[in-house]
Amino acid sequence: MHLSEIETPAIVVDLDIMESNLQRVAAYAREHALRLRPHTKTHKSPVVGRMQLDAGAAGLTVAKVGEAEVMVASGTPDLLVAYPVIGNSKLRRLMDVATRTSVTVALDSAEAASVLSAAAEAASVQVGVLIEEDVGLGRTGIHDLTALLALAKQVDSMPGLRLVGFNFYPGHVKQMDEDGLAMLDALGARLEETEDQWKRAGLPLEIVSGGSTPTLFHSHSLKSLTEIRPGTYVFNDRNTIECGACTLDQCAAHIAVTVVSTRRVDGLIVDGGSKTFSSDRLVTGGHTTFGLLREAPEALFTKMNEEHGYIDLPNAQELFRVGDRLRILPNHICVAVNLHERVYGIRGETVERIWDVEARGKLQ
Number of H helices and number of E strands within the chain? Predict the structure, then answer.
């Protein structure tokens, strides 16, 4: 199939760029003796998960049980559910996954640990546990070190559970500029304190798991860190560029759209709107735009209806005609992928493979 035969709107992935991204991060992890357990939230496909494993990942990370059920098909020897699992039905499903591959769960409460312990014991399986530390984002995780260690001690004594360490997500560090590097230094000191107190308490510490795509290539500066879980790096997006974590030529995915109208004054309409793109804005602020038009970088993607994308561009009617196919790099590729049923992998202008987004909508 030729690229021009793909019906739009559609997510298109340059396989050469994606494979380069996988190899680059795997090589970085090897160089710095970091265990790579990438988050699959970006691609949501066991096909790509298998590619990550083949490139050197030791396992995969998911957020929800439904994603774990899908990712088992990748053949991963290890799954981290980086999210507390609450609810009897979800726990029973997770225990079924735990009979097929090694499972670890990140949590931050005695309640989540208690129900996980009961489910594991009932299913006669053992589940690893990471205690989540809040290092500044203020989302999930325990900020108080005394409370974090107290929960770790509780988990260490619970049947069916195996305490393996602690995890964190530095989502508050968006850019590796002077301020970002200072925040990373402070984070490193915080992790070293946690590690020291953890070991003084006599708790088992196999894994300190953390990281993000924006901080990815500075992970080695965090001396306590043993495992990284980047997700967006597989494709990258406009926000990854804005964070300084990649360049435009390292962005593997774009959304192919078609111009359906040029009737707007100084603008055009494409066949992708809020059901095609993420509504996330640029992490760095600035202009309101939902993506970068590759054929006209000066254009602003300013508005979306469900099926309409509004592109503001002076002299648009002179530059483009109805029926022209365009490429838009979304601000946030992870959310965009979740809106699509399949992905088209290309080399040059040839569609080499097509895969379904099998974990699409797996929110439970």
Answer: 10, 17
> pLDDT tens, position by position, for the chain (364 residues)?
999 999 999 999 999 999 999 999 999 999 999 999 999 999 999 999 999 999 999 999 999 999 999 999 999 999 999 999 999 999 999 999 999 999 999 999 999 999 999 999 999 999 999 999 999 999 999 999 999 999 999 999 999 999 999 999 999 999 889 999 999 999 999 999 999 999 999 999 999 999 899 999 999 999 999 999 999 999 999 999 999 999 999 999 999 999 999 999 899 999 999 999 988 888 887 778 999 999 999 999 999 999 999 999 998 889 999 999 999 999 999 999 999 999 999 999 999 999 999 999 999 9
CATH number at residue 183: 3.20.20.10
pTM above 0.90, yes or no: yes
144 burial via Cβ count (<10 Å: 0-12, 13-18, 19+): exposed
Q: Which residue has the tokens 């090897």?
A: 30
Find the DSSP H helices in 129-256.
145-156, 178-200, 238-242
**Which residue in 85, 7, 13, 88 sits closest to 44, CA to CA?**
13
What pairs with residue 329 in β-bridges?
292
- The token pair at 110 is 């005695």
Asked if 94 and 189 sit in the same domain, the reply is yes
Domain residues for the domain of 202 are: 15-235
Kindly report the CATH number assigned to the domain that includes residue 274. Answer: 2.40.37.20
